[in-house]
Structures are given as C-alpha cells and as structure tokens.
C-alpha cells in the first residue's frame, strides 16, 4: 500500500513549519521563531494527535 502518509511528525506542513522556524532562527527573528513553534505544536496536536 503506497500513498499513505502515516509519518507521525513529518507531513509537508510540519516540514514547512520546521523550515520557517529554522529560517527565523537564522535571522534572529525571535518572535517569528516562536510563532512557527506555536503553529507547529498546534498543527501536530490537531493533525497528528500529539500532546502539547
Ligand atoms: Zn504535520
């Protein structure tokens, strides 16, 4: 069975948020970095059922 994305914490949205967070960190944009982290936690809780 292919095409089933069951990776618990690595969907495309997760990866984009990780990249955005890394970019913000690189630019020393602390508020944006925190923003990305919050969005990722919220996304993982909502989509992946992760606990915050
Ligand atoms: Zn995800």
What does this structure look like?
- The structure is a single chain.
- The chain is an all-alpha fold and 52 residues long.
- The protein has a domain at 12-47.
- Helix content is 63%, strand content 0%.
- It contains 2 helices and no strands.
- Helix 1 (12-26) runs antiparallel to helix 2 (30-47).
- It binds zinc ion.
Q: Which spans of ≥5 residues are poorly predicted at pLDDT below 50?
A: none
> Roughly what percent helix?
55-70%
Q: Mind summarizing the main beta sheet?
A: none
Output the structural class. mainly alpha
What's the overall average pLDDT, rounded?
Answer: 86
Radius of gyration: 12 Å
Measured by DSSP, the beta-strand proportion falls in under 5%
Small molecules (ligands, ions, cofactors) in the structure: zinc ion
Distance between the termini: 31 Å
Total strands: the figure is 0
Q: Shape, please?
A: elongated
Please tally the helical runs, counting DSSP H or I stretches of 4 or more residues. 2
String of helices and strands:
HH
């Amino acid at each position: 069975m292919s095409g089933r994305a069951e990776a618990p914490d690595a969907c495309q949205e997760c990866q984009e948020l990780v990249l955005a967070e890394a970019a913000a960190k690189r630019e020393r944009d602390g508020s944006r970095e925190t923003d990305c982290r919050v969005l990722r936690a919220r996304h993982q809780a909502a989509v992946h059922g992760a606990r915050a």
